[in-house]
Structures are given as C-alpha cells and as structure tokens.
Design goal:
This protein is of the alpha/beta class. It folds into three domains: about 120 residues, Response regulator (Rossmann fold); about 160 residues, 3-Layer(aba) Sandwich (Rossmann fold); about 150 residues, Helicase, Ruva Protein, domain 3. Helices cover about 40% and strands about 15% of the residues. The chain has a five-stranded parallel β-sheet with strand order 2-1-3-4-5, sandwiched between helices. A five-stranded parallel β-sheet has the order 7-10-13-6-14. It has a two-stranded antiparallel ribbon with strand order 8-9.
Length: about 475
C-alpha cells in the first residue's frame, strides 16, 4: 500500500484505451494504477519502490501468442504472496486455466465491467466478504432454455414464469437482482424463447464503456464524425437488428446517453453520430441492473421516463441465500458444465463439500458459487471435490471441520428445526419435491419417475402442499 493509504495496482497491458478504462474504474475504490507495457518492464518494476508497495497485479492476455503462464510463474517466484489476476478474451477458458495453474489468483473476462473488476480487486486483497467472487460465469456461452435453468424455490420459479410469459412479446423487460444471481442467463432464456431466437442477442455492459463513447457504441458513427473516427462504425442497435439488445448494468449509463436511449425506445429510430438521417431498427431491449432502479430515479441518477419505458415487465431474481435448497442441485449442474471446458474433466462432489456449500450464504450468488467450483475444479487432483477444496468458503462460513451436522447431508433439505425437533413430514416432502423439480430442470415426467410416483399424483401433491404449478413447471 502506498504512503497515502491508496492501494497500488500494476496493470500489464500494451493497449492505452484499456489502461485508461481499468485505471479509472480502480480509482473509484481508491486504487492507484501503474503500468507495464511488456513482461520485461513488469518484472523490472518489482524491484522499484512502487513495485515493493504493490497490492495486486492485473495481467492482460493482449496477444494469443504471449506466454502469460511463464510471466505469471516469474512474477510468482519473485513475489509469492502478491495477488495476480488475469484478463482474458471471452471464451478463452484454456488460457485462463493455464494461468491459474501457473499461479494466478483468478481471472476476469473482457470486456470488463466496473462492478466485477472492483469486486475482484477487493477480494484479491481480502476486503470483500464475498470470498471467491470473480466473473467467470460468462465462460460458458451456451444459452439455456427456461426448463434448463436449475432452481425450484417458489419465488425463483415465479420470476422465471413472468420472464417466460414476457418472452413471447416485444415489450422491454427490466431484470433486477443482486450481482451474480443470473440476470444474463434469464435474459438469454427470454431471447431463446422468443420469436427473435433466430436473430442475434447482442450484449452491452453499460458499466464497461467510457461515458464519452456510449453513444458511438450504441448507435454507431460515420467516418470523420469526430476526431479519431477514421472509419464508419456500426452501433450495437444495428448489430441486434431483428433480435435482442441486452443492456447490462443499465443503471451505470450516463444521463446524456439515457436521453438518447429513451428517444430510440419511443421512436424505433436511431441516428449515428455524424449521420444526416435516422434509421429504423427492429430491436427488443432487455435491461438488467444490480441496483434498485426506482431508488436511482428518486436520487436523480436515472431518468424517470426511461425507467418506465424499460420497466414494462419487471423480473426480480431472488438472491441465492433465499433459496438454499437450490445450492446442491446447482453445484452438480455447474460442475457438469465446467467439465466441458478445455483442460478440465468430469468431477464428483462429496457430501461434506455440498454440506459446506449449503451452509454458506453466498453474497456473490450463483456467479460466486460457479467461480468457487471452477477454481476448485482447476486445482483438484482427485476424482471428486471435497470440503478441503474450498478453504476460503470454509473460512468465511466459519466451518473448519468436516461439515455441518444440522443439514441432511448434501441434499439441501433440512430435517430439523433450529430447536432440534424434527420438521413435519409434509414440509420435508414439499422440500424434496421442490429439490427434484430443480434437479431435473422442471421435467415433470422425469421428476415423477424418479420420485416413484405417477405424474397425476405429483400434480395432486403440488396442490396439496401449496407448491405453485406455474412457478414450479
């Protein structure tokens, strides 16, 4: 840490625009950033006063041919305790796995969002209660249909039911929820279930675009429209023609850009910077935010008229701590997806590990769960993840032993009340049915078969136990 109390970050990157963006985002949390444009400069910097005061290193894989793993090993050899994070291109899982095995603490995916970078930096130096909160979820790009999304909690299934109904219409959808709950997954499911599914879904992270470039990014610009506009640029709205535009972190959009977005939603027309005429676009907008947007409106940071334009249908995704019964089936599902990535293999997970995961409250939600599993899978030498593969989670959960005794093994179904008495049989039965629905992704015929009952009996029990069929199916 520098003398004035600032955290000090070294960014190893040869791209000036990326340097400025990362430094500006890090400065929001009080970080000062120094730069190295190549590996030789980075290693040499470690011997300087600034290098001795470093709190973290962020390494950008700027070239597919760059030997990042060798550089990480060299940096780790010289500074064994220094957190090293890497930036990789979207989908470059193999490079990220190699980096972690070489000694990197964790990695992020470009384009980088402000909240995700800050969370990773905080976690790297031990400031975040989220533990292993890293943005790794986007490494698995395949879109999921609604019936493939794991989760049986009533409030979660109710949110999905609203999203599924909205998918068939063209109206804008606003998805609210804490960071990491799966807002992008729900947005992709809406697109996949819509008549626009054959057209692209274009993602824009509003928090990752410098304020002066938002208009050009969304609407494009003509050649010569401003200094540095050496060629014509197609905006994201035109890229999404006929499909869906997903505006993530929409609450971070500058007020000036909000005005122009409102105009597009009202008129269905865009005007590129420097263009003389407007152009009609046929685009469905889905916005997401980890903020409570109405509070941002009341604080004057978000336009009220734009809020109501975006909030035609609102979907609120509950945090993972409110649906602990979903944790075990989610962990198994995510491990199956992780195993498909280059350099990784299928792994089981033991009951004591699942019991630990169920006990933790996951402030980083599904993304944090995925990232903890991903990290453990990369470093695991055995055939199954155990309690010992999650040391940070064990520390944060306050459980250094072999797992909790109050949980029903790894099922996620609680058998006892807090006072030590057994729960009523129908309560346990309802939890088992919800767990089965989540585990088999809403495939009710399979749920009934695995539970050893008929489909009609299953639906009768849904009614008797008060499990909403529309939110469970």
């Amino acid at each position: 840490m520098t003398r004035n109390g600032q955290r000090l970050l070294m960014l190893i990157d040869d791209e000036p625009a990326q340097r400025r963006l990362v430094a500006a985002i890090a400065a929001r949390r009080g970080w000062r950033t120094i730069f190295a444009g190549d590996p030789e400069t980075a290693v040499a910097t470690l011997g300087t006063p600034d290098g001795m005061a470093l709190d973290a290193i962020l390494l950008d894989h700027w070239s597919p041919d760059a030997d990042a793993a060798s550089l990480i090993r060299e940096l780790r050899l010289r500074r064994p305790a220094l957190p090293i994070l890497t930036l990789t291109a979207n989908g470059s899982v193999a490079a990220a796995v190699d980096s972690m095995r070489a000694g990197a603490s964790d990695f992020l995916v470009k384009p980088i969002g402000s909240e995700r970078l800050l969370a990773a930096l905080d976690s790297a130096v031990g400031d975040a209660t989220a533990g292993e909160l890293r943005p790794l979820t986007e490494k698995i790009p395949a879109l999921l249909a609604f019936d493939e999304i794991v989760g049986a909690a009533p409030q979660f299934r109710a949110a999905l039911a609203i999203a599924a109904k909205a998918a068939r219409a063209r109206v804008p959808v606003l998805i609210e929820g804490e960071s990491g709950v799966g807002k992008e997954v729900v947005a992709e499911a809406i697109h996949a279930a819509s008549p626009r599914s054959r057209k692209p879904i274009v993602r824009v992270n509003c928090g990752a675009i410098p304020a002066n470039l938002v208009e050009s990014e969304l609407f494009g610009h003509e050649k010569g429209a401003f200094t540095g506009a050496f060629e014509r640029k197609i905006g994201r709205f035109q890229e999404a023609e006929g499909g869906t535009l997903f505006l993530d972190e929409v609450g971070e959009m500058p007020l000036e850009a909000q005005v122009k977005l409102l105009r597009v939603l009202q008129s269905g027309e865009i005007q590129s910077i420097g263009a003389r005429h407007t152009k009609e676009v046929d685009v469905r907008v889905i916005a997401a935010t980890n903020k409570t947007l109405i509070e941002e409106v009341e604080a004057g940071r978000f336009r009220e008229d734009l809020y109501y334009r975006l909030n035609v249908v609102q979907v609120t995704i509950p945090p993972l701590r409110e649906r602990p019964d979903d944790i075990a089936p989610l962990a198994r599902h995510l491990l199956g997806r992780i195993a498909t990535q280059p350099g990784l293999r299928p792994l089981g997970i033991t009951d004591d590990a699942l019991s630990l995961l169920v006990q933790y409250d996951w402030p980083g939600n599904v993304r944090q769960l995925h990232n903890a599993l991903f990290r453990a899978a990369v470093l695991c030498d055995g055939d199954a993840l155990t309690h010992a593969d999650f040391p940070q989670i064990a520390t944060l959960a306050g459980t250094r032993g072999g797992g909790g005794g109050s949980l029903a093994g790894a099922s996620g179904v609680t058998l006892f009340h807090a006072d030590g008495n057994l729960r009523a049989l129908e309560e346990i039965e309802a939890d088992v049915i919800r767990l089965a629905i989540g585990h088999y992704r809403g495939r009710m015929t399979e749920v009934a078969r695995r539970l050893g009952i008929g489909r009609s009996t299953l639906y009768r029990k849904l009614g008797e136990l008060g499990i909403d069929q529309s939110s469970a199916a």
